[in-house]
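User: Sequence recovery, please. Input:
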């Protein structure tokens, strides 16, 4: 569904990705782990076209999207809940979700809101609350819900559990499984390597802009290099 072929990405003179090749197949949960500054966010944002890859190719459903605008890429069926959530703090929960379904017609919008409130009962209870006053976990659920409102086929999640309490982290991973079971393919960037690899069908390890390991989630959890560098074992 998503393929990166020898992708290089630069910020001016800084090279953040150095020939990354990887893929996400339909129906999978794929996790990308790596330490701070490895290039995880850059990889995810390169898929979204901002920044653009300086060389290599990004393919979505076989179509070359390397030079497409972010807007065009999103319209093909891709959505992202970015790092730091980026919800609209002054708008209510309901308004944030409506923004996510901006292009949908009214009938579809109502149906999707109902679906989101079923997936995230907490958002239903808080529909009228200003998003900026919600807890970190609630805001993360809102960011995921807003991304799902565009009915994506592929959902990108950048560090969805960052800064959250263990109980909330467990809820977020349960939700990620449910989303996949509902037919949405998930590509996940996480520093919480243990939980993220447990939920993943496959995973990649990124170090200084390069993929250094690729395997099933299960095998990566058992890999000595991963255990020492990312699991603290
Ligand atoms: P973290 O887990 O800390 O978010 P990351 O793995 O997501 O890290 P990136 O944010 O992708 O890493 O950063 C990769 C490299 O690119 C880093 O060296 C970073 O300093 C650099 N970088 C990221 N964004 C920019 C930018 N806008 N301008 C210049 N350099 C950047």
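Assistant: Recovered sequence (233 residues):
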């Amino acid at each position: 569904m998503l393929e990166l072929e020898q992708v290089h990405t630069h910020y001016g003179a800084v090279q953040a990705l150095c020939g990354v090749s990887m893929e996400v197949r339909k129906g999978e949960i794929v996790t990308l782990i790596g330490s701070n500054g490895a290039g995880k966010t850059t990889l995810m944002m390169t898929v979204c076209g901002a920044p653009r890859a300086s060389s290599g190719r990004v393919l979505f459903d076989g179509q070359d999207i390397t030079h497409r605008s972010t807007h065009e890429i999103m319209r093909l069926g891709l959505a992202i809940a970015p790092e730091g959530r980026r919800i609209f703090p002054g708008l209510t929960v309901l308004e944030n979700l409506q923004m996510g379904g901006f292009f949908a017609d009214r009938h579809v919008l109502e149906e999707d809101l109902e679906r989101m409130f079923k997936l995230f009962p907490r958002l239903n209870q808080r529909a009228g609350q200003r998003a900026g006053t919600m807890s970190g976990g609630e805001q993360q659920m809102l960011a995921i819900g807003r991304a799902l409102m565009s009915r994506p086929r592929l959902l990108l999640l950048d560090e969805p559990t960052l800064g959250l309490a263990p109980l909330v982290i467990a809820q977020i991973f349960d939700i990620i499984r449910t989303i996949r079971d509902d037919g949405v393919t998930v590509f996940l960037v996480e520093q919480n390597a243990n939980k993220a690899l447990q939920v993943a069908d496959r995973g990649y390890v990124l170090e200084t802009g390069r993929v250094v390991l690729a395997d099933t989630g299960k095998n990566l959890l058992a890999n000595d290099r991963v255990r020492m560098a990312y699991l603290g074992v």
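The CA atoms of residues 3 and 23 lie 4 Å apart.
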